[in-house]
Design goal:
four-stranded antiparallel beta sheet; single chain; Metal Binding Protein, Guanine Nucleotide Exchange Factor, Chain A; globular; 93 residues
């Protein structure tokens, strides 16, 4: 799978985990140079507290377009530390 934003592949993996229709990419499979930590957090009742990244490519930013769970509940261990996308990021084969 590939995650693409602003015409650039920002993550690529053959080992994504799909939960609730979102592909979660292993942290080692993202292109870290495009990711900036954000102070945003949200809470999912069954997964835990999510943290976010802002994407930055060629002078354009996509605030909080990627999220991950640094620590998950027991039910969501398969996605702990993995990154998912929204806000115009396309995920395709």
């Amino acid at each position: 799978m590939k995650a693409i934003w602003n015409g650039t592949i920002i993550a690529e993996s053959e080992n994504t985990t799909v939960i609730e229709g979102n592909h979660y990419f292993p942290a080692d499979d993202i292109k870290k140079e495009f990711f900036k930590p954000s102070n945003t957090h949200s809470v999912c009742p069954w997964k835990g507290t999510a943290s976010y990244y802002t994407l930055s490519i060629g002078g354009s930013e996509n605030k909080d377009a990627a999220w991950y769970y640094p620590e998950t509940s027991k039910m969501a261990k398969s996605i702990e530390g993995k990154i998912a996308f929204w806000k115009g990021v396309s995920v395709e084969k």
